[in-house]
């Protein structure tokens, strides 16, 4: 099976500082790929390179190749907006817009030009169901999204990302600001979503990576140290640094 | 789901317990250590007197401002109030003439006229307020789109280098003395605008409004730019990640989130425009005409009237008192405006932050 997304010799610079160095990695379709590593190891940078969010950062330079279904994401005629519609993203801190729950989920559809009320309503409901939030908010779709709890807000952000029907969903430590119960719900959601989406998740928690992911990539100092099926990485790591990290000797 | 919940709850409930023993431990340890010379808590009860002195001083400074405003109001009101009960033997001055039209000798119909040096003296304040509002509204129509648009460009689109040039330059405009702007309008702007638009009167409401805009744009710009720039980056990113284009992010996310700040900017600009004196005194032509919807006539504003006439009247005369009344009314108008503005900003803000409950 060809990889859904892949990078070949990917390096990323912020000004003169190299944040990612020569990373080659395949992201398998309908699977969860976890990126782990100590703070500042480049895993978030790598994630944001996949949907060209780094384009917004002044002085950021990308070298190497990133592909989505074999097509170069950074190609000369490629519109970054088209990439982001197919590769969605959920952030570490939930960031709902200061609007109603409905409008939050409908945002991506509206900016893509969807006008029809019924289609919008149907898609909003579907997305909220997918994000396991529908039952909690169905009676108050018009309420401010900011009235929701932290965990609900994060699921709303997931629903918002799903509403535009991306193929890949990138998650940057989606549960790091949540309590254990909300975290468990998000993790269950991730396992549920991988049947239809390809998911790449950055996480600080090795337990989380072990629980939700099929593949794990260990980053250290901007380099990809080791990559493989999660079970193997956590039981029989090949690299010494991987073993030291997962056994908690540093990081 | 349930077992997870239970373990989660257990962990949460268990959490405080392990935290207790260390505290006990600390205390027992402290008991072992020989006690230092005991100090009565009562000695430490009060804040050091130097701190209290400084706190009082700061409070006094703050109160000074409030007291000063109260004094100004009282003083202005004291000069104006006698209008209400003072008797004018010759019957030349009637309170109702301040606001209602009157058919003066020699006129065909009742009119609104401000003609304090005519005989009889005519003090109708309506043309002055119409003039003030006309110039102010015209100036706002020019400076709000300009200031907000400029702020949008600088905060959302401009590169850092452009921003570092444009921002200080616009802010420099704010520091220009208004007499300089008035001079510029009087000498340069009026002639060239007359040449271009063919105004009948060289000095008119439009010239004054343009000059006034030069003073207001920096105010609107600075406050709006601040509001736009302080919209959290995370909202920006959320929109971009959903496939929003730059203009969509700006129009649908950044501007709505900055709306309270933009409203504040407009109110601040309005307050500045309505109170501005020197520019309108120099550039508006100062004829107290009553033509609310004609931007090409000369106008006389409330502020310019006070500035130009107060030095020329005898203390205690009706004219003197009417000028103070004008000041009082301007004061009230600005106060109401700020009050309404504050309410609008608060309501917008609440819509953006507070829960919907």
Task: Describe the protein's architecture and organization.
The complex is a heterodimer of chains A (251) and B (357). Chain A has helices spanning 43-50, 80-86, 101-111, 117-130, 134-137, 150-163, 180-193, 206-212, 230-235, 240-246; strands spanning 5-14, 17-27, 32-36, 60-68, 71-72, 87-90, 168-172, 198-202, 215-220, 223-229. With 251 residues, chain A is α/β, with parallel strands linked by helices. Chain A has a domain at 5-97 and 167-246: 3-Layer(aba) Sandwich (Rossmann fold). In chain A, the strands form 2 sheets. In chain A, strands 6-7-8-3-9-10 form a 6-stranded mixed β-sheet, sandwiched between helices. In chain A, β1 and β2 (17-27) form a beta hairpin. In chain A, α3 (101-111) packs across α4 and α4 (117-130) packs across α6 (150-163). Chain A starts with a strand and ends in a 5-residue tail after the last helix. The mean pLDDT of chain A is 93. Chain B is mainly α. Chain B has 2 domains: 49-85; 125-353, MetI-like fold (Orthogonal Bundle), CATH 1.10.3720.10. Chain B has 12 helices and 2 strands. Chain B has a two-stranded antiparallel ribbon with strand order 1-2. Chain B is globular. The relative contact order of chain B is 0.11. Residues 1-30 of chain B have low confidence and may be disordered. The chains are: A alpha/beta (251), B mainly alpha (357). Chain A binds chain B through residues 51, 53, 56, 58, 81-82, 84-85, 88-89, 91, 93, 95-99, 107-108, 110-112, 140, 142-144, 146-147, 157, 160-161, 164, 179-181, 184-185, 188, and chain B through 1, 4-5, 7-9, 11-12, 159-160, 232, 234-245, 248, 252-253, 256-257, 351-357.
């Amino acid at each position: 099976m060809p990889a859904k997304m892949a990078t070949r010799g990917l390096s990323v610079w912020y000004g003169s500082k190299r944040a990612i160095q020569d990373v080659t990695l395949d992201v398998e379709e309908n699977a969860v790929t976890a990126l782990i590593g100590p703070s500042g190891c480049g895993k978030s940078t790598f994630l944001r390179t996949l949907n060209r969010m780094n384009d917004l950062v002044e002085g950021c330079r990308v070298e190497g190749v990133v592909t989505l279904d074999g097509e170069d994401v950074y190609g000369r005629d490629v519109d970054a907006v088209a990439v982001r519609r197919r590769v969605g993203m959920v952030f570490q801190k939930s960031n709902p817009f200061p609007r109603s729950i409905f409008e939050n989920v409908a945002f991506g559809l509206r900016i893509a030009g969807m006008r029809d009320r019924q289609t919008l309503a149907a898609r909003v409901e579907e997305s909220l169901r997918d994000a396991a939030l529908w039952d909690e908010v169905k009676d108050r779709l018009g309420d401010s999204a900011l009235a929701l709890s932290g965990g609900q807000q994060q699921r709303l952000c997931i629903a918002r990302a799903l509403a535009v029907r991306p193929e890949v969903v990138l998650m940057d430590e989606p549960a790091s600001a949540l309590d254990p119960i909300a975290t468990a719900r998000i993790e269950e959601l991730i396992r549920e979503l991988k049947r239809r989406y390809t998911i790449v998740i950055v996480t600080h928690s090795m337990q989380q990576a072990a629980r939700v992911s099929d593949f794990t990539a260990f980053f250290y100092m901007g380099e990809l140290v080791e990559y493989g099926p999660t079970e193997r990485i956590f039981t029989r790591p090949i690299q010494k640094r991987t073993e030291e990290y997962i056994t908690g000797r540093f990081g | 789901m349930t077992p997870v919940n239970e373990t989660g709850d257990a962990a949460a409930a268990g959490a405080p317990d392990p935290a207790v023993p260390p505290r006990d431990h600390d205390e027992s340890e402290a008991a072992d250590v020989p006690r230092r010379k005991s100090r009565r808590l009562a000695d430490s009860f009060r804040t050091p007197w130097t701190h209290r002195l400084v706190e009082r001083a700061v409070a006094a400074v703050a109160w000074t401002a409030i007291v000063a405003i109260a004094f100004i109001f009282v003083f202005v009101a004291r000069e104006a109030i006698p209008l209400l009960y003072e008797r004018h033997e010759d019957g030349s001055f009637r309170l109702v003439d301040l606001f209602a039209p009157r058919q003066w000798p020699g006129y065909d119909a009742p009119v609104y006229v401000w003609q304090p040096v005519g005989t009889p003296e005519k003090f109708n304040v309506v043309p002055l307020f119409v003039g003030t509002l006309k110039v102010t509204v015209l100036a706002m129509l020019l400076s709000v789109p300009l200031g907000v648009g400029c702020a949008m460009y600088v905060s959302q689109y401009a590169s850092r280098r452009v921003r570092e040039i444009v921002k200080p330059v616009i802010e420099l405009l704010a520091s220009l003395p208004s007499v300089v702007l008035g001079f510029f309008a009087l000498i340069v702007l009026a002639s060239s605008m007359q040449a271009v638009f063919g105004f009948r009167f060289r000095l008119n409401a439009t010239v004054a409004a343009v000059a006034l805009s030069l003073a207001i744009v920096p105010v609107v710009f600075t406050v709006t730019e601040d509001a736009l720039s302080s919209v959290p980056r995370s909202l920006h990113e959320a929109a971009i990640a959903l496939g929003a284009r730059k203009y969509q992010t700006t129009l649908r996310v950044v501007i709505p989130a900055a709306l309270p700040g933009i409203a504040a900017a407009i109110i601040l600009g309005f307050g500045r425009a309505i109170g501005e004196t020197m520019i309108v005194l120099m550039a508006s032509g100062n004829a107290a005409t009553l033509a609310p919807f004609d931007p090409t006539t000369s106008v006389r504003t409330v502020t310019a009237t006070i500035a130009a006439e107060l030095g020329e009247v005898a203390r205690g005369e009706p004219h003197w008192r009417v000028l103070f009344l004008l000041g009082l009314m301007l004061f009230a108008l600005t106060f109401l405006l700020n009050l309404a503005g504050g309410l609008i900003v608060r309501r917008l803000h609440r819509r953006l932050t507070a829960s919907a409950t």
